[in-house]
Amino acid sequence: LKLRPHAVKLGELALDFLFPKYCVGCGKRGDFICSDCNRQLVRIHAPLCPQCGRPQTSDVLCPVCVSWSAAIDGIRAPFRFEGTIRQAVYDLKYHNIRALAKPLSGLLHDYLAGQSIPADVLVQVPLHSKRLKERGYNQSGLLAEGLGKLTGLPVVTDCLIRAKHTTPQAKTESLGERLGNVNGAFACGGSTFRGLSLLLIDDVATSGATLNAAAATLKSAGAKTVWGLALAKEI
Fold it and tell me: Model-level pTM?
């Protein structure tokens, strides 16, 4: 049964009445991120390191990436992981406010429209089955699904899996620890990506080690290019 647009709108109004939205930044009723807080989001601007996406004074490889033989073609994120965006990610990830995925996907879509990133397919960064069972959903999967609806790009969920239960990257300190933590963490099966450009979707990028490990696995499955797109980046 396909609902007419006005019926969908009425349904959304009814939901807003029963479960009103409040801005995660200031608490004002109306939207999850109000227009004032949206304008104050700390955006990442060029020049950037072309590989990890860290803002810097020039567009050459940063010192870390110079010494890092990365598998991923590049990582980009529209926002710094602080303030309202940090709170939004936290609420989506740990407070089960899944409805936040829709506006956050919209922010990713707006950012992606201004980037020259090749993408034939969207791939979520997966959770290990143990963590997925604990949380009940994959926040990165929700973002990928929302972005897929906005861009029209297919979202593949049955290939990349988290084969190794790892310590959360936030609990590691150095790049070396993070690279070792996710070494062998991913496996791929069920789909072929030969000759395709993939866009990996995640909520937050820190060192980029997780995205890079996933990219290495996807390239071993035949992917032509793999870029990472996160909502926010720790600087």
Answer: 0.87
